[in-house]
Amino acid sequence: MSEKCKNKIHCFLRPATVADIRELRRLFQDTVLTVNAKDYTPEEVKDWASCGDSTAHWEDLLSRFHFFVALNAGKQIVGFASVNGEGYLHSMFIHKDWQRKGIASALLSEMESYAGGRGSWRNHFRSQHHGTPVFRAAGATR
Question: CA geometry: angle at 94 spanning 90 and 98, to 5°?
Fold first, then answer.
């Protein structure tokens, strides 16, 4: 585990495992139902959150993408991000109570290091409205 979120808080990053699925699912759904609800209709949010229901779906995602999780001092997952083999960021979700604390930036940096080390980082993003600032701050373009 590496300490990465030093700019505002202490958090630790590590690769995700199938043992994390329960927490990943909860964090994903809670974030979609709270943070993302500001930008979508209730029907869209409910449908999106339901994508996290299946454990088999999460197992498939963990097999196809490289996931990192951010842990707080209590070792709870407070954020996660994933990148595919071509260096495109697949997902990033930060717990509603842990946003704007440097976690997204630390995860983005970790994704860039991981994919860049394989010669595949793409400094380009497609983001929901609330994610744009962290990507722009990292120099990414749409």
Answer: 165
Helix axes 21-34, 42-50, angle to 10 degrees: 170
Q: Is the entire prediction scored with pTM above 0.85?
A: no
Tokens read off for 51: 């994508």
Range list of β-strands (E), the chain: 2-3, 12-15, 66-71, 77-83, 89-94
Task: Tell me the average pLDDT across 72-93.
Answer: 88
Give the tens place of pLDDT for each residue, 51-79: 889 999 999 999 999 999 999 989 999 99
Q: Are 79 and 95 in contact (CB under 8 A)?
A: yes
- The token pair at 75 is 């070792």
Kindly state the average pLDDT of the residues 102-109.
Answer: 88
Residue 38 and residue 62: Cα distance in Å, rounded? 28
Question: Residue 111 in contact with residue 79, Cβ under 8 Å?
Answer: no
